[in-house]
Inverse folding.
């Protein structure tokens, strides 16, 4: 009889307020520091605070960075295009939220 190895799944619940060091952020995005630096330079993500000259990133920034990396890698969009696409996606999300509120209130 073949023996089965048990693999444990590990995960971390990330909220918008979760903070990551730059090393943790790179690891969570599975990219090198240079990629994160390029995302910051393009204005795609921003550190939420500096702690002892070490930038920290929020959980919301993690989601945005991972989306940006996928757009850049999978769709071969340059970083300026990625920034524009993310801004448009944010605006669509905001407009949908506002529309839903209008529908709920009966206006």
């Amino acid at each position: 009889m073949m023996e089965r190895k048990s693999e444990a799944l590990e995960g971390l619940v990330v909220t918008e307020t979760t903070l990551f060091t730059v090393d943790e952020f790179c690891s969570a995005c599975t990219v090198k520091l240079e990629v994160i630096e390029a995302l910051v330079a393009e204005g795609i993500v921003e550190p939420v605070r500096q702690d002892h000259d070490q930038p920290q990133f929020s959980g919301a920034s993690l989601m945005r960075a991972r989306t940006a990396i996928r757009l850049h890698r999978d769709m071969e969009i340059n970083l300026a295009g990625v920034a524009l696409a993310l801004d448009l996606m944010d605006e669509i999300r905001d407009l949908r939220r506002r529309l839903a509120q209008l529908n709920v209130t009966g206006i």
